Automatic annotation (TrEMBL):
<protein>
    <recommendedName>
        <fullName>histidine kinase</fullName>
        <ecNumber>2.7.13.3</ecNumber>
    </recommendedName>
</protein>
<keyword id="KW-0902">Two-component regulatory system</keyword>
<feature type="transmembrane region" description="Helical">
    <location>
        <begin position="6"/>
        <end position="28"/>
    </location>
</feature>
<dbReference type="GO" id="GO:0016020">
    <property type="term" value="C:membrane"/>
</dbReference>
<dbReference type="InterPro" id="IPR011712">
    <property type="entry name" value="Sig_transdc_His_kin_sub3_dim/P"/>
</dbReference>
<feature type="domain" description="Signal transduction histidine kinase subgroup 3 dimerisation and phosphoacceptor">
    <location>
        <begin position="181"/>
        <end position="246"/>
    </location>
</feature>
<dbReference type="GO" id="GO:0005524">
    <property type="term" value="F:ATP binding"/>
</dbReference>
<keyword id="KW-0547">Nucleotide-binding</keyword>
<dbReference type="GO" id="GO:0000155">
    <property type="term" value="F:phosphorelay sensor kinase activity"/>
</dbReference>
<feature type="transmembrane region" description="Helical">
    <location>
        <begin position="121"/>
        <end position="138"/>
    </location>
</feature>
<feature type="transmembrane region" description="Helical">
    <location>
        <begin position="35"/>
        <end position="53"/>
    </location>
</feature>
<feature type="transmembrane region" description="Helical">
    <location>
        <begin position="59"/>
        <end position="87"/>
    </location>
</feature>
<keyword id="KW-0812">Transmembrane</keyword>
<keyword id="KW-0418">Kinase</keyword>
<dbReference type="GO" id="GO:0046983">
    <property type="term" value="F:protein dimerization activity"/>
</dbReference>
<keyword id="KW-1133">Transmembrane helix</keyword>
<keyword id="KW-0472">Membrane</keyword>
Amino acid sequence: MKHNQLELWIISLKVMMLLYAVVSYFMSGAVVSPWMTLFILIYVSLNISFHLIGRYLKLVMIACSIAVLVVFHYALYPLLVVLIPVNLYELAAQLFRNHWLRAAIVFIPLVVLPNEWLLDYGLFAALGFVFLTMLNIYESKVQYLSDETDRMRNDIHQLTVRLAQNEEFMRQAEHAYKLEERNRLSQEVHDQIGHSMTGALIQMEAAKRLMDNDPAKTAELLQNAIHISKEGIERIRLVLKNMKPLTEQLGLRRMKRLTEQFSATQPIRIFLTHEGNLDRIAPIHWKIFEENMMESLTNTMKYAQASVVTVHIQVLNTMIKCMVSDNGNGERQVIKGMGIIGMEERASTIGGTVIVDGSGGFSVTTLIPYKKCEESHGEG
């Protein structure tokens, strides 16, 4: 609740109390009096105007409103005393934060009022105090939540800026790494291959000059050139082999990146574990594991209300297994939707199967026969 909304509620309370007093005045048989009209105009003017001015002038205007009520209470109509508690509360709210001090000020007139007005004043004072106190407490809570929201928005903005800075740093680091790798590769090619090719070329140039005069020496030089060239080609093959990452590193690294990206955008912790010789897993099977894993994570986010997900890849003697399990609600009777059917179809293309279990959380296990994996490697 904003401050101006709080003021509207206070004005509404005053209007209702004023209507009560005015209606009671006319129901008592009193004639229409210019003094009552004057009182209403003065009271309304004062109580609206002090919502538009500063704090110190507001104190003066509230005090004037209370004085007007006291004067017209004695001179015109005693029941106007029921309008005093709201003004007293507003005056106390400007001076004190403690609700008990405000209550003491609101109920002070009970000491000096005659007995016939004690009940009316006490009832309106109690109702007004409870109503206005609840409004102030509610406003304080809303203000606190608003401040917390602003603080969190500021924190999110700072985190976003830091994330952007980190991403830029990572891009620069990646670019620098690529430049360093290119420089290293260039140097390695120069050191390992350039010398061999230069040596072979020198041998062939010498053989060319001796071709007519010394056939035996020419044959020897050519054989040396062939030997040096073979060594150079072997070094090229080794350099390229060392540059190429292993298959399991590509598949596992990609799955780690996918799980990290998912955890970064969703309130779920994901643990990726593995055991066995991952080199037996072909690229096509890594692809199936990745797609089934992402489908399982999406379903977990939508339905499971889980906080932890475990992805376990295990290479067995005859099977390769990828199990995605969570600690969510689970499902006693699993109804296969498009997601599960899609996972089953992907696994079936290579002779695999998908097992779904909804007891004790939810788990999706993709099983691929190892024989099929060997055939895929052979075909590749």
